[in-house]
Write a structure and sequence with these properties.
Radius of gyration: 14 Å
Helix content: 25-40%
Number of helices: 5
Order of helices and strands: HEEHEHEHH
Strand order of the largest sheet: 1-2-4-3
Largest sheet: 4 strands, mixed
Shape: globular
Low-confidence stretches: none
Structural class: alpha+beta
Number of strands: 4
Amino acid sequence: MALPKANRLKSRKDFQAVFREGIRRHSSHFILRALRPSSSKKPSLDTATSDKPLSSTQFGVSISTKVSKRAVIRNRIKRQITAALHDLLPKLSPGWRVVIVVKPTAAESKCVSQQFLQELEQLLVKAEVFDGHS
């Protein structure tokens, strides 16, 4: 199941802003890059998304061919991640922009969706993206 359109990072500028200004958290299968909602800080270079009021949390998934040369495997991992994120959406604080980078160990370990869910939840807690942690 895909994420709702309001919860997807779409443009290259959004991804670049998260990588340039966001915080970084690591786990065994993922690198999480998260950009806090801009409330009082100066506007960034990408004014397309910073002009909006506090909106829903947006996610992007980055998975390179280093993870697997086969698109079938990369797409399966991406579907598992989006399914796990779909379960976590109601618990998240609004306005965050998050990029999840998949490490090559995710394809090697034959991880299942439940493991991805637990690991993503731990990363989001570390990054303080959950409600009540910001």
